[in-house]
Amino acid sequence: MTTADQSPRAHQQRPISDLYDVINRRRDVRSEFTGEEIPSEVLRRILGAAHSAPSVGLSQPWDFVLVRDEATRRAFREHVLAERSVFAAQLSGERATTFSKIKVEGIVESSLGIAVTYDPDRGSPDVLGRHAIADAGLYSVCLAIQNLWLSATAEGLGVGWVSFYREDFLRRLLDIPSRIRPVAWLCVGPVRELATTPDLERHGWRKRLSLDDVVHDGKYRHDFSR
C-alpha cells in the first residue's frame, strides 16, 4: 500500500496554485538585491532546474558561467553603463525623461552573475528537429533561463536579465570561444522584496497588454491598433 505522500491521488491534490504564484511573482530585479551569499545547495538546485529544461534534439546547448569576481563584475557594469548611454542618446522628450529614472542592471549589488551561453555545435552534426528552424537551439537556452528564473523565485531569490551589452565584449571578458554565443547575463541573489509591479510598467515605459490582445483564434488577427 502506498503512503499518502506517495499516492497518485496525493500528488493530484497538491495545489497547482503554487506554480502560478511563482510565475506571477517573478520579476526582473534591479534594485532590490541584498548582496547576501546564495547557499551552495540552493544554487545547485536552481542550476539543476535550468539544466532540466527541454532542448531541441536533446542537444542541451547551454553552459553557465558563474561570475563572483568583483573586478570582473565591475568591468562588465562599466560596459553596460556605456551602452545605456548609447541608448539614452537616441531618446528625446518624455521618453528620455522616463528612461533616465530606470535602472537597467544590478550587476554589483547582486550576489552572483551567471552568464548563460549557447553552443550551436552541441549535439551536431545531426541535431534532431533543428534542420528547418536554425534558432531552435537558441530557444532551448531561453527555456533553461526561464527554468532558472522560476526556480530562483521559488527559492526566494531575485533574477535580473541584463541585455545592455555587446556580445564580443562579454566573450573577451569571460574568455568565451568565438563560436559560442552569450545569450544572457543574469544577476542573481537574495532580495529585500519582489516588486508587485514590473519596473518598466511602474515607471511608465510600457503597459502590459491584456491576454485578449494577444490570443488569436484559428488565424492571425491583423490588428495594428496595438
What fraction strand? 5-15%
| Quaternary structure | single chain
> What is the tally of beta strands?
4
Please estimate the helix content: 25-40%
Strand order of the largest sheet: 1-2-4-3
Instruction: Give unreliable regions as ranges.
Output: none
Radius of gyration: 20 Å
Distance between the termini: 57 Å
Major β-sheet profile: 4 strands, antiparallel
Mean pLDDT: 91
How does the overall form come out from the CA principal axes? globular
Run of helices and strands? HHHEHHEHEHEHH
Separate helix tally: 9
Structural class: alpha+beta
What does the model show?
With 226 residues, the protein is α+β, with helices and mostly antiparallel strands. It is 39% helix and 13% strand. The protein has 9 helices and 4 strands; from the N terminus they run αααβααβαβαβαα. A 4-stranded antiparallel sheet has the order 1-2-4-3, with helices on both faces. The protein is globular and about 50 Å long.
How would you summarize what this structure contains?
The protein is of the alpha+beta class. The protein has 9 helices and 4 strands, in the order αααβααβαβαβαα.
Search tags:
single chain, 226 residues, alpha+beta, four-stranded antiparallel sheet, 39% helix
Could you outline the blueprint of secondary structure elements for this entry?
Blueprint: H1 8-13, H2 17-25, H3 40-51, E1 62-67, H4 70-88, H5 93-100, E2 112-118, H6 136-154, E3 157-162, H7 167-174, E4 181-190, H8 199-202, H9 211-214
Antiparallel strand pairs: 1-2, 2-4, 3-4
